[in-house]
UniProtKB/TrEMBL annotation:
Source superkingdom: Bacteria
The protein's name: Cyclic nucleotide-binding domain-containing protein
Coiled-coil boundaries: none
Organism: Qipengyuania aquimaris
GO cellular component, one term: cytosol
Keyword Transcription regulation: yes
GO molecular function, one term: DNA-binding transcription factor activity
Stretches assigned to the Cyclic nucleotide-binding domain: 61-145
PROSITE patterns in the cross-refs: CNMP_BINDING_3, HTH_CRP_2
Residue ranges constituting the HTH crp-type domain according to the UniProt record: 176-251
Keywords for the protein's UniProt record, in alphabetical order: DNA-binding, Transcription, Transcription regulation
Length: 270
């Protein structure tokens, strides 16, 4: 979405060399009045007064590389983040290292929402694509809801849409076949990517998702995932390589997997 977002010479390491959470603060952040999300076709632009308020509470912009852990399950965080650019996964990890990917997060999504309610994080967040995030103090969101109830409503709306997405993924785990699960996930990812302007012509999304990550999301074995992806590729429903996802016919894929595409409208963001 943005050019030259992740040049390390323009960033400062905030973690003191901690390899688990290498967060870098961007030296020249966007002013909220110039936020690129304002021009994203699938997002509703903030009003002038809302932009001014978010500028007053915005702490910084930070970046993470692919594979970096942004938030860790069980930790308490003082911050919330809005994704400016990139894609992240939200996941739970068992003691033996197995993990369940819960959801994917796209530009405009709010990261660490549960921390705003004074609870330890129930999940971890990891960068799938290089991330650029706006950072806010979670304590400021109490004042935000009081002073800008419309923004407070938008946060509630985002939480409700997250639950709606989880319902679809739960149905996949419980009721859809392996082929339907893979098609549903691919169609859902492309639907979000198209709405946030990061998909390319031809319903293509440049995103390196490993087959292991797909298996973690869909509750399938790695061997079953591999066979299913090859089968769908042969049938022309989904083309899923190590670097790119392509759904040639979104309507056909949606019908096959009983996926309800997003209504034409704009998601809020803060």
């Amino acid at each position: 979405m943005f050019d030259n977002c992740f040049i390390r010479g323009d960033e400062v390491d905030l973690q003191g060399g901690d390899p688990e959470k290498p967060m870098f603060e961007i030296a020249e952040p966007y002013a909220c009045q110039e936020c690129p999300l304002q021009d994203c076709p699938g997002l509703r632009p903030l009003e002038d007064a809302q932009q001014a308020y978010m500028q007053s509470v915005k702490q910084a912009e930070v970046s993470f590389e692919r594979g970096d852990v942004v938030l860790k399950e069980g930790e308490e965080t003082d911050h919330l983040f809005t994704i400016l650019d990139g894609v992240a996964i939200r996941y739970l990890e068992l003691e033996d290292g197995r993990r369940q990917i819960i959801n994917f997060m796209f530009p405009g999504d709010l990261v660490g929402l549960q921390g705003a309610f004074d609870e330890a994080l129930s999940h971890s967040v990891e960068a799938v694509l290089p991330l650029r995030l706006c950072r806010f103090r979670r304590s400021d969101f109490v004042h935000l809801i009081k002073e800008h109830p419309r923004l407070g409503f938008d946060i509630t709306w985002l939480a409700a849409k997250e639950e709606n997405a989880l319902e679809g993924h739960i149905v996949s785990l419980g009721q859809r076949s392996a082929r339907e699960r893979v098609v549903y996930l691919a169609a859902w990812l492309l639907d979000r990517a198209l709405a946030t302007g990061i998909a390319r012509d031809g319903n293509k999304l440049s995103m390196a998702i490993t087959q292991s990550q797909i298996a973690d999301m869909l509750g399938l074995s790695l061997v079953h995932t591999n066979r299913t992806i090859k089968s769908l590729d042969r049938d022309g429903l989904v083309e899923w390589s190590s670097r790119e996802i392509c759904v040639p016919d979104m309507d056909e894929a949606a019908k096959f997997a009983s996926f309800e595409r997003s209504e034409k409208g704009q998601r809020p963001f803060v």
